[in-house]
Amino acid sequence: MPIVVVDRLSDWPWTLPGVKVVEARAYLNRDAGSRRTPVWSFASRIGYQRTGYYVALLAEARGHRVWPDVGTIQDFKSRSHRRTLLERLGASASAELAATDAEVVRLQLLFGQPLRHPELAQLGAELFERLPIPGLEVVLERRDKEWEVRGLDLLDLTALTDKDREAAEVILRERLAQPQRGATAVQQPRFELAILHDPNEAEPPSSPEALRRFAAAAERLDVRPTFITRADYARLPSFDALLIRETTAVHHHTFRFARRAEADGLAVFDDPSSIFRCCSKVFLAEALRAAGVPTPRSMIVDRSSLDRVADELGLPCVLKAPDGSFGRGVVRCKTREEVDQVGSKLLERSDVIVAQAFAPTEYDWRIGLLDGQPLYASRYFMAPGHWQIVSRDDEGKKVDEGEAETVAVADAPRAVVEVAQRAAAIVGDGLYGVDLKQTPTGEILVIEVNDNPSIDAGVEDDVLGDALYEKIVESLVARVERRRRIVRVPS
Question: Are 471 and 465 in contact (CB under 8 A)?
Answer without folding.
Answer: no
